[in-house]
Amino acid sequence: MSATRLSLFLEDHPGLLPESGEIAVMGAVSGLDLSGLPANRLRIVARMKPDVDHLEASGLSVVADVPQEAALAIVIVPRAKPEARALVAAAMACAGEVIVDGQKTDGIESLFREMRQRCACGEAYSKAHGKTFLARGTPEAFADWAQAGGPRVIEGGFSTRAGVFSADGIDPASRLLAAALPERPGAHVVDLGGGWGYLAAAILERGGVEQVDLVEADRVALDCARENLSDGRVRFHWADATRWMPETRADAVVMNPPFHAGRKGQPELGARFIAQSARMLAPGGRLWMVANRHLPYEKALRTHFREVAEIGGDTRFKVFCASGPSRTGG
User: Can you give the pLDDT at residue 150?
Assistant: First the structure.
């Protein structure tokens, strides 16, 4: 795994760590082994709230933005290539000396080849289906990568950024769900895992809506949502959607739940969204949900709701409406 490979790389390069100065760790996720690094000098840059909570609980310093200057930067390569390039560009801007670590399935080999054409890269340390290597370069050599990681405007005038879900266009499943929403979903609606705000925008177009709570774990996506939604009825929450609760019970929950956590596919994550939606709904509230057709969410829906109906979809996705929430279903 990435953590073991990074630790072994540091052990094999004993003179690599600077004796003083901050060390920026970018793209950090829960479970990352940083035991070979001086904890008091680490500045962890993480965007997902569950990861931030876990890292802070371990006593590490987590910051929202990349430090302006660091003695060394470490990039943990994410799955999205534009985001990976943006992180490398930011690391070069703050440190100039960067350790890059990633899995083959996340594109580390192609990233290594691309970086060798732009800067000096040491020999790659290969282990556990991935690579770790040291790179030294200048911000100018990666200026185009930094620009590509900035804001982009897609269909409908929505602003997104590299690495957020559906950064390049409106997600087709979310589009199906938006079309299926009733004319009057309720006065208080929760957009659970709301991303950069597409579904919330659709909710705000419906009648009778007085408050929309947009709950999103990805800080960057939430920042995009703030840009996209200027309506005063929206409240933005950087939170773990499987744990967050509104101040008052909601009339409706709308969601297109994720089924990945970081790099790992976790279909049970959607089931946790379903359970949490039942807890936050008023007795007469309803859940509106879309999911990939192959995902077996019917059992979870029937566990937490008395009435479940598939109301639409296509060959790839299915749209559900569930009512009669039960908060005793587990």
Answer: 86
Contact status, residue 172 vs residue 312, Cβ threshold 8 Å: no
| Burial class for 102, CB neighbours closer than 10 Å (0-12, 13-18, 19+) | buried
Q: Which two tokens stand for residue 311?
A: 């109301």
Beta carbons of 257 and 289 less than 8 angstroms apart: yes
Residue 297: phi and psi, rounded to 5, are: -90, -5
Helix (H, G, I), strand (E, B) or coil at 61: coil
Number of domains forming the structure of the chain: 2
Judgement on whether residues 140 and 162 belong to the same structural domain of the protein: no
Looking at the fold, whether 157 and 140 belong to one and the same domain comes out as no
Domain that holds residue 46: 2-148
Find the length of the chain: 330
Question: Is residue 111 one of the residues assigned to a domain?
Answer: yes
pLDDT per residue over 190-218, tens digit each?
999 999 999 999 999 999 999 999 999 99
Q: Tell me which DSSP letter residue 239 carries.
A: S
Q: Give the Cα-Cα-Cα angle 309, 315, 317 (nearest 5 degrees).
A: 50
From residue 280, alpha-carbon distances to 63, 222, 240 in Å are 30, 21, 14
Query: Would you call 112 helix, strand, or coil by DSSP?
Result: helix
Interval 34-63: pLDDT, tens: 878 999 999 999 999 999 999 999 889 898
Phi and psi at residue 65, in whole multiples of 5°? -120, 155
CA-CA distance, 58 to 31, in Å (whole number)? 10
**Two structure tokens written together for 112:** 């290594």
Structure tokens at 9: 């790389």
Contact 26, 87 (CB under 8 A): yes
Return the amino acid letter for 1: M
Q: What are phi and psi of 191, to 5 degrees?
A: -100, 100
